[in-house]
Amino acid sequence: MLQIDQLPGRTILADGREYLFCSGTSYLGMARNAQFQALLLEGMQHYGTNYSSSRISNLQLRIYDEAEHHLARYTGAEAALTVSSGYLAGQMAVKALAHAGRFEYAPGTHPAAWLTTDLPAAPALSYPDWASALLTRLAAEPAEPVVIISNSLDPLRVQRYDFSWVSQLPRDRPITLLIDDSHGFGVTGVAGAGIISELRVPEGINVVVVSSLGKACGIPGGVVLGSQAFIGQLRQSAFFAASSPVVPAYLHAFVRAGEIYREARAQLAANVQQLAEAVQPTGMLQSFNRFPVSYISDNQIYNFMLKRGVWISSFPYPSPTDPCITRIVLSALHTSADVARVAELVTEFASTTS
């Protein structure tokens, strides 16, 4: 495992050599965006570097309500609640639903949405087959409450999930659908608003979306999106009262960075399209429209790219004993020339394996 002394951006310096950096999850490049950094500095000058207080104390900072109203308007959700991490957002939501019904986990559900620390039994099915089997089982079972938990997409092998199956959910029982959108929020959906902006759910289904804000959005925090009633329930919980809030300076930057995000999404979309079109004949990369990550099944590409000055993502996940996952990750920081270089190398590698 390599250690470096600077935050990755478009490139990194490692062992005295500069590499084009095609890894990580900073999809919109906010951590290295000078305009965003200026807004963050403005926020720190106004709010300081941290706010070490409970969100239910008798003195509140207005920026939290401002950011949460902004998130609700942006996504179309009834209400939003910010917390200090995406993991906390998932845990807060899932624990609030602990008695809302039997839990049904989709394949690959992120640990942030596990009710316990034990790995839920993983369905040995593809996502479409799991969804089909779930619908069949629900139709045959007594009408008991159910909580269905899923990621919005598979960020490892880069597959976007089709949620059209939710239109067939039974209407004769309480059903909650909890979706972790951490890798989609900010880059997928309508204007980057994620899965909630595209989801079509029958009336009566309780929808909860949780997400990290630290990936595309560059905010060290998380968000829960849901109904006014559910978000109100979370606000009254001891879990929320005892947790640290998002650093307010980041929320100050977030609500003022709309145009910065729009420009970054446009650049990222252009980069993704350029790479997809250039490498399509090779059949090497597995990806989907507008998403900046591509999966490669042949792990040998990692050393091939590394020798040629391109650092891509390749490591066992989620545990050190799991198989290696190799991916190429683009960001809004990459230039057209960067993308052309990556495409050139992918094409060259493909020619050596054919």
TrEMBL record:
The lineage of its organism: Bacteria, Pseudomonadati, Bacteroidota, Cytophagia, Cytophagales. Residues 168-344 form the Aminotransferase class I/classII large domain. GO terms for molecular function: 8-amino-7-oxononanoate synthase activity; pyridoxal phosphate binding; transaminase activity. SUPFAM superfamilies: PLP-dependent transferases. Keywords: Aminotransferase, Pyridoxal phosphate, Transferase. GO terms for biological process: biotin biosynthetic process. This is Aminotransferase class I/II-fold pyridoxal phosphate-dependent enzyme. Its cofactor is pyridoxal 5'-phosphate.
